[in-house]
Amino acid sequence: MLCAVSLLGAGTPMLAHAGVGNAQGAVHAAEMAARMQPAEQQAVVQARPTGAGGSGLLAWPGVPRLGLPVLRMPDFSAPMQSGAGNASPMLPWLALAATWDPDLAHRAGTARARAEWQHGRAVVRVGGVDLLPSGRLQAGEDEVLSGTMAGVIGAGLLAGHVLPVFGSVVAEEQARADGTVPARAQPVPAARLASHSLLGVAMALEIAHGGAILCGGMAPCPTVTDLGAMVHDAWRFPGMVIAPPGGAGRSMKEDDADPAIAAVAAGVDMEQVAAGEDGHDVFGAVLRQAAQAGTIKPAQVQAMATHILASFYMAGSLDHPPPFASTRNASTPPGTNDTLVSDVEMEGAVLLQNENRVLPFDPALGPVLLLTRNAMRPAGDLLAAALRHAGLTVTTATVPDGPGASPPPAATQAARILMLTGSNDDNRLITALADLGGHVAVVLTADDPDRQMPWLDMVDSVVQAWAWRDEYAQALAALLSGQQDFSGHLPVTLTGGFYPPGMADADYRAFASAHIVPLFPFGYGLSTRSHLTLGDLHVTREGNHLLASFSLTNPGDGPVRATPQLYAEMPPDMPGASRRLAGWRSIMVAPGHTVRLGVPVSLRLLGQWEQGSGNWNVAAGDYTLSLGFSSVMLLRHVTLHLPALHVPGALENAPLPGVAAE
Length: 662
What we know:
The protein is α/β, with parallel strands linked by helices. It has 16 helices and 29 strands.
């Protein structure tokens, strides 16, 4: 499964160059926008409440005169929630990222497209990437991983004529244990973010072959300065930048007589207006007044309309709009989500520790005592039933909620204990269980990268199973019983709640720069079946890419899903010299087999953005590529000397990652 992304560029004009999306659609968007009357152009730069009581939907008005339909979308200012008005079950983000499996991500995107269509929505936000840096978003802490996975989800959405909008909101961040939050009060040039957060957005657009960009989810849109120049001039992206309610930046410009000018300057093409916000928006009366006064030129409004139409043409939403009736009568047919969420857990659960090979549980060694808090009892009952169905003898017990709970009497006689835990309140209890002398396996049931584990050296096995969903019971039982092998790898660094002094971020590059090994590193994950071996690593240059090739052998007697990871490191005397993920493969390897794999690496990952030219400059020097199974467990290394190079910054459609061995 080829997972490094080809970020090739070109220097031809935006509408003449294929670029991201469809060149014909971009030309059609420009022609259609030119046919709009000024009032129509001004109307289509907003999405407003539909008026349907309690629907919570916003409507893009379309242009009936030109045959452009009304399109509905949710308010993007808040995290997506499960419920009657939303696709259910919602996407388990970190668990999906932990699979490192683009095929599964594409399946999630196509399933989501079907659900959105049934609910009458033609636009959906895909989180996990954002314009602004964040410690850890829903799809993990690395731009290459999150950009790839978000892009593949977006490709699935576009295939179903649903437009993906790439961007996150503050509530989707994984908060640090020490309360530190990224500083976002001061404007930051887009050029400074080119190799950081914006890289993930660019990769998502290229892999999806289109979409739109959300600004204002982390901070008002004007926070990222020169965004429009980066997106439309340097990237040559023909689509739109959309702001959620309040995101266009009026709150930053309360004393500005014409906040629409600031929003247009910030690169915003469409503004969402929430219920009750009318009169406090930017692109309504304020935009019309600015257009009448000449402070915003007609050509600027027409360009905004062109960008909006280009995104919708990428998705085919204008030619295939969902029927409005579906918003009132939506129902999910049986089998629509099939086993998606269960399969995400099957591939995404991460085995962190397995001393004494306690996992998988052997039925011949007697019963397993499953312990839960009262709040987790329904989940425990589901898991116990699934484990019994897998052939294990399982007894259950619950302990009272609160940090002072003691082990129940049944635990004193149990040889094997399985504990489901969702918070640090259980740490004293887990320590007490380990003191009893039996074998203890701990299953973590929350998305908490900073979960403390003071008991780690006392227990046998630890599984990161992510935020609990009932659909996880069958999959987790198959893993714990050995019917399936663990194959997940961490998309975030598990810190144990410890940050070295002065560390602004908590990702793997920050730990590497501080020369500190975290509790469990990014990319880490164990198997119960086999220890894979890697052959020699060879790296060659092909144009604006490097190609890393190697062999992978499974010497065991069972199939293993492998996720070899490639990391790149710039010369030590250059800025940003810390190691970063450059690509990976996710592939099932049969027992006793060797496969030959290749991972292409864009030279953009080794370059520095040059705003004046809109290129990536790769300095001459010695670059190191390392191959292994986590960001710290690297087994093969190659140093390659590169001459000074210039890589174009324009985006292109990247191949959709697929399964193929050489």
